[in-house]
Amino acid sequence: MATAQLNKSYFNDEAAKYDSKNEKGLQQLTQAIQARLDFIGADWVDDDEDDDAAGGDGRQLRLLDYACGTGMVSRALAPYTTQCVGIDISENMVATYNARAENQGLAKEDMFAVVGDIADPNDPEPTSLSSPELFNFDLAAVGGGFHHFENPKLTATRLVERLRPGGVLFIWDFLTHEPDNHQASHTVTHHGFSEAQVREMFESAGAGKNFALEDLGSGIIVGGHHHGGNSHSHGHHGEGTQPRKRQVFLARGEKL
Question: What residue ranges are annotated as transmembrane (predicted)?
Answer without folding.
Answer: none
